[in-house]
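User: Hi! I'm working on a homework problem where we have to compare a predicted structure to a textbook description. Could you give me the structure for the chain below?
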Amino acid sequence: MNTPLLTAAFSGFVGGDATASAHTASYLYGRRNVPSLYNSPGSYELGKRLAAVAQSRFWDGLHGGANVDSDALTRTSPSTGGPKFVASFSGTTIANTGEAAQVLLNHVKNLPVDAVAEGRVTAPFAVTVADLYYAPASEIYLTLKVAAPFLPILASIGASAGCAAIGDWHTFSMIVLGMVCNAATSTILRSGDLTFNRPASTPGSPAGDGFLEAGNEIIVLKGHEDAVSAVTRGRFALRFKNEAALGRLSTAATLATLQCLAQLIVVPQGTVVGQLCFLFSIAVAWLYNAHMVSVEKKAKAKVVIDDLLASPVTRRYSLGTRAAMAVFLMQVLKPTNIEEQLAALIPNNTRVWALWRKTVARRLRDEKLAFDTGVPPEAAEFNAQENILIRTLLGDAQAAVNVYVASRGRL
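Assistant: Happy to help. Predicted structure tokens:
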């Protein structure tokens, strides 16, 4: 008498995130030749993700073929993009940058601090200066080596052989179905080329220098417009040669959904031993997929930092206040409209702040980097509290100047 194991029947509804990450790391980043010929959980969710990839097509006038968003495979919610970018010379502001900017942000957070500004500390800021000396081509094909899934393949073969040995053809057929559907999905994904695209810069456009801002993390981007554009406006894409190749992605989505429904109906009809074999193949595949989740994150970070940006030279500084951070940015980037950019960074409209911005801008332009020699003459009409505040803010500016001067040779 057969006893249904509900856990086995519902395996198609769990583990979809890990399965999607395994396919992403292996066949989008890894370009691996060995198909995923193993029974895997999460087929229902994987089917939804594959359908989302097929429907995420976007137009790219520079390159032929059908282009889709590769990140849709592992995205569970609409993307919010990367950190805000402000260009220091063109005045361009990008509220949400691309994934390359987010990867760079996560990367610099783990870097050691090279210098700490002296002075008061309220809300400390970390400022990382990144020299983007390498500009990737407008389209680049990416690859990264990852391990082949030999362990889950062997587990699924062993589980199916066990079912055949005891004559449980119901469960045997469902394990084989899962192996075939998963292998078909991996093969179809590998038929698309993972590319990274960035818009070409306009001839005669100003330097692309600017900064990324995410809370108390600031990344100064210095380099050619094409290099900065790769970080701020580049995007990953999965390019198929034609519409027919893209259509096979929808077929894979349908197969994954049908696999889930078939296993839901047929697996409970198998023997207890057969269903335990089914669960064994699912468990090994889940462990492998879970491992590939971390591999997928590391793979993308390695692609961005090592391949796209060629391991940029970075220096990391800690400044104790937003005022000090703003002054430090102006010294590193050297924009022509210093006062205007200070107002954008610190939009306080009191007369103390207005005078502070005016004083800082004037002295930086004149290269008179002494802010601790007294208050400007315009502060004569300030009251006692305002005089204390202007002196404090000028002290923050001096702290930024000191750390900049000490590191000037490396900036």
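For your comparison, note the following. Residues 58-66 have pLDDT under 50 and may be disordered. The CA atoms of residues 23 and 369 lie 55 Å apart. Good luck with the assignment!
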